[in-house]
User: Fold this.
Amino acid sequence: MPPLLPEQRIFFRDQLRDARAAALRNSEDFHGLLFAIERLGSFLSNGNGTGLRQYQEHISEVAKKSPLALDPEATDNLSIPFGTLYTLVNRARNDALHQGAYARNLTTHAVELAIILEDALMTESNTVRDFMIRSPVCASLWQPLSFVRQTMLENSFSYLPVLDQAGEKKQWKLISDRALATYLREADRKNRLKQTLGEAVRNGLLALEVPHKVQPTAEVSSIFDGEDKGRPVLVFDGEDDGNRPLLGLLMPFDVL
Assistant:
């Protein structure tokens, strides 16, 4: 089996990551994960196979690149080995009963399987563009705070990028859940929820944060140092002058 190209590894990692996020929102939504794993297996085997059992050899070869798959010291014997997980998922995939507790158990095992495969696919990657979230969800100054709050809660976001045009210089900044929660709880919650983000910023009542900004070729090992280590990193192809598109967003969580 020829090695996967960098763009192929990122493609399948994103497929697994997106499906895993959907499964975490719905504990019985295992279908996307299974389809993503089977799609990877079909690609690795050049279409020679019809299901998880036929793809196991090829997918296991990829998984071996991650210490999480085989090394018991890497998991302190608390995690299920990759081969066992794969067998459990394959058996459950072929069973007829896929609802309730049985479906949730299958989803849990599929998520654990995906985490190992994602790690294996990214073992040779070390730049921001390899790990960043492309086309991230953003807030806009015209949106009411109630909608910004809803977006954060629906996606479990702690920060949202926003293009700040209220100051002297147009530039990308961040609105944090902490700042928004503090502002909405201080006084007159009902009317403040109706305010737009831009109104609250212009009135000086809600502060936006200036994030660390990097280019896609930066190494991930160095970007979470200093005061910005807990905030998202925004990615631009060059200096952020307010006119360049936001290429991506990166949190420490994304490179775990």
